[in-house]
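[recover] target loaded
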């Protein structure tokens, strides 16, 4: 089913007329140039965003460096109060931020509202977070304490699939432990991040949070900048390699959250209807543009046809349309490059497998691809081997579970995975054999601030969230006392 509406966003201001600004040292500033921002649901230009000059990047890094000692000196309680105030602003402007997210990113408005709600929850969680010193030894010989110090200035780089949420979930843990930040959003989705920065301009002390705009060349300048102590990067594996190399000369700390090609393994005792529902939800959310989307589904031959029938039924019920139309379940792809890649993937699907539902780009303005399921596909092709960032998913039959696990692990990626079954003991045993940072059982893609999330193999380095993730924004400092 498709929807035809292309509604105007209800943000409380005229987006086209608004001057989006960078936040540098507590001031809202224009860029040295601008970059056009397109609504992927219409293909039309909706706003212009500022782009930082190298000199402005220097100013932002210098401002973050100047602000950091005083911010650190405030201590946890005071920094937490500031972060709760940030969460209050997010809550107050919840709908406008959601509408802007949909306008620039394309996702259905209900999913954009979730992005803002998660942003609030994560901010409040980290506002109350503490990394207290840990006593490692306390005996007659002496006393040894492990403390966690902020790294200093964090450079944050975000992609375009959850722009506001990603900005906030980097900001809150970095700030609570005493760092300051310079954040660079993706050139195609800067609006919600810049509007958020404008809203909290007077909430945080000047320089604590800086947002600079990018036309496509600013990322390497930020990663190489000598005034930045750590890079927190989310994006593709290809770019992650450049980021890691750029961090090497100054030995910056680096966290990389990269691509994924998540397998879902269905076991023979799985509840077909519930499993089909879960698989479709996490295959097609955000039009398949999620690092931890379910991208490959391995199903036993005994239930292969029934599972596919149940998935086809659910997929056919999804309404594709502009994200601001409340009837839409699946929005457009975020940009033209992804749209063209998705069209290539559809051609591969038709050539190497059998398309059982979907299979086409929509004949309307914007970057819409029908949710597509493919069966009986040979595995040695890019649709299976590479990350498909589009609503095109393959269901692959297996006869032997050990072989299915081997095929699921046969990937350079290792971000998420899931196992779908009734016998949780067997599912847990299978989960333990999958090469992934997270393996969910009977669900997929649950991110919460208390649980670490990261990839193995070429899906990343380090983790975000949980104590592990917060510690990545710190350096270890040991105080070792010898009793006299
Ligand atoms: P991308 O790697 O093209 O861009 C990500 C960000 O890096 C953008 O802000 C971009 O401007 C910037 N960038 C580009 N080149 C750079 C360079 N040389 N140095 C520094 N920065 C540079 O990724 P994308 O297309 O925006 O996002 C999609 C990818 O992100 C997918 O692979 C997806 O799986 C991944 N992703 C991963 C996670 C995760 O948590 N693991 C989450 C979301 C998205």
């Amino acid at each position: 089913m498709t929807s035809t509406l292309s509604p105007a966003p209800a943000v409380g201001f005229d987006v086209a007329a608004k001057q989006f600004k960078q936040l540098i040292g507590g001031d809202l500033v224009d860029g040295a140039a601008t970059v056009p921002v397109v609504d992927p649901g219409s293909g039309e230009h909706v706003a212009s965003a500022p782009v930082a000059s190298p000199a402005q990047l220097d100013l932002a890094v210098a401002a973050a460096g100047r602000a950091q000692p005083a911010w650190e000196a405030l201590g946890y309680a005071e920094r937490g109060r500031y972060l709760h105030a940030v969460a209050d602003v997010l809550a107050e402007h919840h709908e406008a931020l959601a509408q802007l997210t949909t306008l620039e990113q394309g996702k259905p408005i209900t999913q954009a509202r979730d992005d803002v709600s998660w942003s609030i929850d994560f901010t409040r969680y980290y506002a109350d977070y503490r990394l207290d010193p840990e006593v490692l030894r306390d005996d007659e010989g002496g006393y040894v304490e492990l403390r966690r110090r902020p790294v200093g200035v964090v450079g944050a780089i975000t992609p375009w699939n959850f722009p506001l949420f990603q900005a906030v979930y980097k900001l809150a843990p970095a700030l609570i432990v005493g760092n300051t930040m310079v954040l660079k959003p993706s050139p195609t989705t800067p609006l919600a991040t810049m509007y958020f920065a404008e809203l909290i301009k007077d909430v945080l002390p000047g320089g604590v949070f800086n947002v600079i705009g990018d036309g496509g060349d600013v990322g390497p300048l930020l990663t190489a900048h000598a005034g930045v102590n750590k890079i927190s990067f989310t994006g593709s594996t290809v770019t992650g390699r450049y980021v890691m190399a750029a961090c090497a000369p100054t030995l910056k700390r680096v966290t990389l959250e990269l691509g994924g090609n998540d397998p879902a393994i269905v076991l023979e005792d799985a509840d077909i209807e519930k499993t089909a529902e879960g698989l479709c939800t996490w295959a097609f959310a955000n039009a398949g543009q999620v690092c931890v989307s379910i991208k490959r589904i391995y199903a036993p031959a005994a239930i292969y046809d029934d599972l596919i029938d149940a998935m086809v039924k659910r997929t056919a019920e999804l309404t594709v349309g502009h994200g601001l139309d409340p009837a839409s379940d699946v929005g457009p792809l975020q940009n033209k490059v992804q749209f063209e890649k998705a069209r290539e993937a559809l051609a591969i699907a038709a050539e190497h497998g059998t398309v059982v539902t979907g299979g086409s780009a929509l004949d309307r303005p914007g970057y819409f691809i029908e949710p597509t399921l493919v069966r009986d596909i040979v595995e040695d092709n890019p649709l299976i081997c590479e990350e498909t960032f589009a609503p095109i998913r393959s269901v692959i039959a297996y006869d032997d579970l050990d072989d299915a696990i081997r095929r699921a692990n046969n990937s350079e990626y290792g971000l998420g995975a899931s196992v779908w079954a009734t016998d949780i003991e067997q599912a847990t045993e299978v989960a333990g054999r999958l090469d992934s940072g997270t393996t969910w059982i009977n669900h997929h893609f649950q991110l919460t601030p208390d649980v670490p999330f990261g990839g193995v193999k070429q899906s990343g380095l380090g983790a975000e969230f949980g104590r592990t993730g917060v510690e990545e924004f710190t350096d270890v400092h040991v105080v070792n006392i010898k009793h006299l």
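[recover] notes: Residues 54-73 form the longest helix (20 residues).
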